[in-house]
Amino acid sequence: MRQNVARIGTRQLKQCMILLLAFSVHLTILAQQLARVPAYSVGMSTERLELLSSTFHDYVDQGKLPGAVILVARKGRVAYFESFGERDLESNAQMQVNSIFRIASQTKAIVSVGVMILQEHGKLLISDPVGKYIPAFSETTVAVPGKDDTYEIVKAERPITIRDLLTHTAGIGYGYGTGSDLWKKAGIQGWYFADLDEPVLETVTRMAALPFEAQPGAQYVYGYNTDILGALIEVVSGMPLDSFLREHILDPLDMQDTHFYLPKSKADRLAAVYSSTENGLKRAPDPGGMVGQGAYVDGPRKSFSGGAGYLSTAMDYAKFLQMMLNEGTYNGKRILSRKSVELMTVNHLGDVEFPWRKGVGFGLGFSVVEDLGRRGVPGSVGEYGWGGAYHSTYWVDPEEDLVVVYFTQLIPANGVDDHQKLRALIYQALISE
Asked: Strand locations in 60-109, DSSP E?
């Protein structure tokens, strides 16, 4: 009898040990986020993904793209991670998967998360007026068009809120709308700040005295909103923007190749910028100007542009997006609460029309798909994403447990349908849920 009991006890102990081992392995796998795995193991066809590779090799061979990196992650694993073409055509430097890109407006999503972190820390509410923290925004003005290129400057009907900035409904453009002569005179136009020899708070404080394009809450106007949020983060946190984001987002996510200004030791990994012309690809000016080949490396390193300043790699940015897809966590570290992620990734525009794409709204830093049929391209309702001025793009599809990062350096990108083909060829490769 005692021997039988002993045998049963030993058997149960072994079973428990097996279960504990299996659970331990499971936890280890969960901790190893974004590991490369065979595509079939996450429900994607290796054979069908070859169509993606051949198509982008063709873009390079035809001289439509200098080079690119594509990363596709599904179910928390990397199913596809490839580079194409060259990082620098003139020196014949090959593009690598760890090449560094100017991600421009993809900076906006990271800074928007930074604002939500401050709300979670009890430092602000997104319903607060911006003027509570940056007094220059307590009273703002709007340029109202008149006849024959004239305009009238009127007072804003209400204060601009932090949420207005997050949703791009503050009425603030990039200085090219009505009243652009005043913006030009102030030296504030376009999204490029890397060559400015002043902190971003000084720039946005000067900006507050200029007339905006629309009344707060009345229209979707894409512009300096997130640059203002970057300055707001500095005021509220008492830290430079780069330090705050490094401490609260980049380091916890192990995004070690994401910088406002590139360390000199990484300069040889930075992809060059090209422009589409009638005569093929032409290298963009170096340095300075809107494109700014050199200022990210050799600039004054004073202005941290929350709207367009970051450089990054495909893997770094995928970690950030995987955190969002994981409802605020990555590698066992929580960056945001589940409810903050939920709030950021639903449409906040209400009756305000999103002007660029049908079936799409805008949340707190991301565009959001609301009607798949109206948008008319493969994807899912609830998908969110955005892109950058240098022709990069990204999206997160929660329904398919999918993260996509596409980096290239092309401005302007004339006559190339790579974004559309990218989307079509990724979704055709899905073979199971």
From this structure: 67-74, 77-88, 93-94, 101-102
